[in-house]
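Hey, I'm writing a tutorial for new members on how sequence and structure tokens pair up, and I'd like a real worked example in the thread rather than a made-up one. If someone can provide the structure for the chain below, I'll link this post from the tutorial.
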Amino acid sequence: SVATGTEIVEHLAPIFADHPTAAYVAKVRGVRLLGPTTALLRAIVGMIPPGAGDVNPAANAHQTLLAEEAAGTWRIVLFQNTPAQYHGRPHLVEQHTAELRPLLAPDR
């Protein structure tokens, strides 16, 4: 069976109530219109652990979102989150992290 929105909220609420969550930082790298009602968005993202002042490179990811407009409303058709591991290429890990650092809140 498919879970309802209420069931999902009830299941996840205790997790977020009892565990501090990381802050999230994202940078849109590009938006491309694929047609008059379809768009592709690419972004890089990172997380700042609770109490930390910097991005945790191990949590970096690439995100892709496909959206479609119908009757004046844009809706997500597909969302993909891929860990940015950069196996064996530490300079790419640092480049990804450095690109996100300017987006950190000034009080960090």
